């Protein structure tokens, strides 16, 4: 059986980085920026007031000094003239600083009578002016690749970048398999359960930039599986869930073989997730995930997210592991690399007692997967453990 790292490398070989497309700025959120974008202007484009008050000459700032008002500068409407000695311009936040002025005294520090103002309180030394280009200058860049956050979208808007180069969203077709499955909201028969993996994985992949197509549940027959694979056409990656193991009704390996899949590997020395399979089928990458709900989700994190990152032109590195201090003793690990459901709080990690791969309630309480190497010896409270944050 191959190791997790070997499997990850083989999986990365199955996918390519997608093309670049341009989207309107309003649709750029959560997309992955594909090439650097540059500001097309300075911000602010002029020295601007940061407060409501009066623009005067800094050299004349002194308590009790008096000035004559000669005009007004508002945001969007600058003052055309020049501020001379003894003169002031009424100014508002965001307005351009008029020529001749280099200080804004805030209105709270001023007494105004008609068109005369007197500095009544100590105005301090802060000039209340934002220099031109203090936020960014024309040509300043936002570097790619990066998933675009709301903050980046706001910055691109301010930089006057109306269209954004992003990576095409990889299309993932998700196929749940099994006669026991019905969709949430349907009425299950006495021997049936609700398909959960589909929804967990859809949420995970979409959060990381994929477009996910959920295909109808394939029944445990070769014919049904073949039909459903047919519906996956056009996807970059086809992910099946379940039917991966060795039981009489685990038909994914047999069906994909019949459909001509070039198999890359089958089975990984990990827990959960051992019966993982992968290959290339009809021009797409194909990954067969084990059906146990926690196994499917863990494989989603450990294997599919790096594939997704490669397709999106991002780092192909595995997620960096973090360390925490064990809060209790744990037993020796078995021969498979183990991703143990765990909770990290205040730098301490506790591993859940029941690690059965069917327990979504435990996974949902977890915020970490403690990663144990194969045959890792027993560990005591206080030792350091590596984990993958969830
Ligand atoms: N004799 C052996 N039996 C098993 C082995 C083995 O090595 N030898 N491996 C075990 C391991 S490890 C795993 S993991 C499972 C994987 O089995 P399959 O991929 O074939 O999955 P299924 O049998 O179809 O389902 C397992 C389990 O998960 C439930 N399931 C399946 N799909 C979904 C879904 N979309 N949503 C919710 N739950 C789902 C299914 O009902 C089963 O309970 O095999 C072990 N057996
Ligand atoms: O590998 Mo199975 O995924 O341990 O439950």
From TrEMBL:
<keyword id="KW-0808">Transferase</keyword>
<dbReference type="Pfam" id="PF00994">
    <property type="entry name" value="MoCF_biosynth"/>
</dbReference>
<dbReference type="InterPro" id="IPR038987">
    <property type="entry name" value="MoeA-like"/>
</dbReference>
<protein>
    <recommendedName>
        <fullName>Molybdopterin molybdenumtransferase</fullName>
        <ecNumber>2.10.1.1</ecNumber>
    </recommendedName>
</protein>
<dbReference type="InterPro" id="IPR001453">
    <property type="entry name" value="MoaB/Mog_dom"/>
</dbReference>
<comment type="pathway">
    <text>Cofactor biosynthesis; molybdopterin biosynthesis.</text>
</comment>
<dbReference type="InterPro" id="IPR005110">
    <property type="entry name" value="MoeA_linker/N"/>
</dbReference>
<comment type="similarity">
    <text>Belongs to the MoeA family.</text>
</comment>
<keyword id="KW-0501">Molybdenum cofactor biosynthesis</keyword>
<dbReference type="InterPro" id="IPR036688">
    <property type="entry name" value="MoeA_C_domain_IV_sf"/>
</dbReference>
<dbReference type="GO" id="GO:0046872">
    <property type="term" value="F:metal ion binding"/>
</dbReference>
<dbReference type="Pfam" id="PF03453">
    <property type="entry name" value="MoeA_N"/>
</dbReference>
<dbReference type="InterPro" id="IPR005111">
    <property type="entry name" value="MoeA_C_domain_IV"/>
</dbReference>
<dbReference type="GO" id="GO:0005829">
    <property type="term" value="C:cytosol"/>
</dbReference>
<dbReference type="Pfam" id="PF03454">
    <property type="entry name" value="MoeA_C"/>
</dbReference>
<dbReference type="GO" id="GO:0006777">
    <property type="term" value="P:Mo-molybdopterin cofactor biosynthetic process"/>
</dbReference>
<comment type="function">
    <text>Catalyzes the insertion of molybdate into adenylated molybdopterin with the concomitant release of AMP.</text>
</comment>
<keyword id="KW-0479">Metal-binding</keyword>
<dbReference type="InterPro" id="IPR036135">
    <property type="entry name" value="MoeA_linker/N_sf"/>
</dbReference>
<keyword id="KW-0460">Magnesium</keyword>
<feature type="domain" description="MoaB/Mog">
    <location>
        <begin position="173"/>
        <end position="310"/>
    </location>
</feature>
<dbReference type="GO" id="GO:0061599">
    <property type="term" value="F:molybdopterin molybdotransferase activity"/>
</dbReference>
<dbReference type="InterPro" id="IPR036425">
    <property type="entry name" value="MoaB/Mog-like_dom_sf"/>
</dbReference>
<keyword id="KW-0500">Molybdenum</keyword>
């Amino acid at each position: 059986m191959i190791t997790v790292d070997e499997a990850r490398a083989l999986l990365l070989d199955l996918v390519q980085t997608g093309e670049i497309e341009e989207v309107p700025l309003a649709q750029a959120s959560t997309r992955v920026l594909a090439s650097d974008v540059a500001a097309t202007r300075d911000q602010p484009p002029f020295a601007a007031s940061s407060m409501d008050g009066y623009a005067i000459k800094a050299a004349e700032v002194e308590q009790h000094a008096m000035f004559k008002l000669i005009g007004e500068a508002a945001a969007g409407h600058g003052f055309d003239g020049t501020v001379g000695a003894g003169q002031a311009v009424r100014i508002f936040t965001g307005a351009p600083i008029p020529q001749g002025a280099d200080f804004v005294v805030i209105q709270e520090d001023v007494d105004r009578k008609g068109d005369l103002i007197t500095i009544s309180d100590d105005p301090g030394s802060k000039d209340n002016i934002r220099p031109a280009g203090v936020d960014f200058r024309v040509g300043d860049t936002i570097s790619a690749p990066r998933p675009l956050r709301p903050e980046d979208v706001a910055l691109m808007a301010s930089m006057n970048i109306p269209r954004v180069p992003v990576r095409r969203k990889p299309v993932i077709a998700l196929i749940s398999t099994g006669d026991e499955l019905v969709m949430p909201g349907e009425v299950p028969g006495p021997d049936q359960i609700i398909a959960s993996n589909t929804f967990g994985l859809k949420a995970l992949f979409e959060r990381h930039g994929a477009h996910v197509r959920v295909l109808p549940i394939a029944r445990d027959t070769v014919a049904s599986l073949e039909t459903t694979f047919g519906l996956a056409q056009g996807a970059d990656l086809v992910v099946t869930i379940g039917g991966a193991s060795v039981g009489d009704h685990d038909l994914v390996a047999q069906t994909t073989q019949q459909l001509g899949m070039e198999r890359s590997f089958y089975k990984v020395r990990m827990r959960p997730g051992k019966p993982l399979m992968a290959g290339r089928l009809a021009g797409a990458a194909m990954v067969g995930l084990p059906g146990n709900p926690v196994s499917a989700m863990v494989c989603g994190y450990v294997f599919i997210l790096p594939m997704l990152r490669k397709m999106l032109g991002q780092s192909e590195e595995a997620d960096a592991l973090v360390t925490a201090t064990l809060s209790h003793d744990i037993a020796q690990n078995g021969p498979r690399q183990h991703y143990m459901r765990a909770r990290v709080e205040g730098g301490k990690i506790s591993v859940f007692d029941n690690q059965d791969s069917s327990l979504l309630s435990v996974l949902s309480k977890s915020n970490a997967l403690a990663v144990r190497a194969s045959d890792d010896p027993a560990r005591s409270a206080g030792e350091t453990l590596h984990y993958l944050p969830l």
